[in-house]
Amino acid sequence: MSLLFKSFLNYICSMNVLIENAKQVITCHSRGRKFKSGKNQSEIGLINNHSIYIENGRIKWIGNKLPSVLRKKNVLKINAGNKTVLPGFIDSHTHLVFAGNRADEYSMRINGSTYEQIAKTGGGILNTVEAVRKASKNELLELAAKRVESSIGFGVTTIEAKSGYGLDTVSEIKMLEVINELNQILPVDVYPTFLGAHAFPKDKTKDEYIDEILYEMIPQIAKKNLAIFIDAFCERKYFSAAQTEKIFRQGTKFSLIPKLHTNQFYSVGGIQAALKCGAVSVDHLEVMTARDIKALKGKSTIACLLPGVSYFLDIPYAPARMLIENKVPVALATDFNPGSAMSENIQFTMSLAVQLLRMNVEETINAVTINAAAALGVSHNVGSIETGKQGDLLIFDTPNYKDILYHFGVNQLEYVIKKGEVIHKNPL
Known about the structure:
Blueprint: H1 4-9, E1 16-26, E2 46-55, E3 58-63, H2 68-71, E4 75-79, E5 84-87, E6 89-91, H3 103-110, H4 115-120, H5 125-134, H6 137-153, E7 156-162, H7 169-185, E8 189-197, H8 206-223, E9 229-234, H9 241-253, E10 257-262, H10 270-276, E11 281-284, H11 290-296, E12 302-305, H12 307-313, H13 320-325, E13 330-332, H14 346-356, H15 361-367, H16 370-374, E14 393-396, H17 403-406, E15 413-418, E16 421-425
Parallel strand pairs: 1-4, 1-5, 6-7, 7-8, 8-9, 9-10, 10-11, 11-12, 12-13
Antiparallel strand pairs: 1-2, 2-3, 5-14, 14-15, 15-16
Helix pairs in contact: 6-7, 7-8, 8-9, 9-10
């Protein structure tokens, strides 16, 4: 298994934790709201020169002087003087379970090959599908654990992971079993999403494969309790809005919560289908019409933007400013995957959001904390620094939170704390 666990043993502490005298604490407080939108997305709840006490994995106190009753307890003290504390980052859209390597395809694309040309050489998503089908569960687990370790090093304390590289019942279940095992053995929360409707396999017709999703995959996955969410890729040449709605309706019968890939290249009615089915988030949104934005306005569905894909594929960026100005809650995620966003670095995603989505620093921070939590339906528990919430915190070696994005390309993160335990410490 990954060296992740050995390294964590050096830092994990079972005592209660007191983070003392932080120069800045970015609370991202929700004040009972599930997410932030419009002008509220710029509210980060900055407080200066505060300490935070975590007991039994939850934030018990935030203030200037620790109450005497708490001072008597066994406490691990961390000096955060001249440093900045943020909520743990949440990566709400990833495809981190896969095998194989597509670096050669990347080079081909950089040299001018089209997607169709790469696919004819055996590349593309079906390349990864073949590798996943051949890989054992242990091989997939080892690879995925290392990727989560990398994500933690950039500040991720909660992460979502999708299936979708199996495209048959046995392999999709194998992927979801890996994701669930990651949640059991790693110190972060890992949320599983079933994405059987990612593409169509070569060995079945579209109708045959959709029937397999509806009547084999969904019932078996639900029976084994392997997924919380159900996802689909609603795009031209993939799954239509009508097919997506049919799959989501079946998923919701089995208590799976819809999330959706849509509007990456075309507007094909995916947003409307997602809203009909009560989707918690709609993701990508690089191509948006006025009708699409109007449909999202005033809804609780989170718009999850993936600027790393636009960077990697050299396609248009999502209209973040237009979404925020129309009071649509915006989240950000890496979309870490082997074909269109090969990076676990959520801080790089944040930098892209500021530079190329024209989001301000404060909107960006809320987009990877409280709004990203809402994209997973867990903003009542994580995503902000508030008493009663889970003690998931980051300590950055800078007195000014703006420096985290201003000083780009370096990692100023010092401590990663999950449920009140130090799970990672970067050498500075």
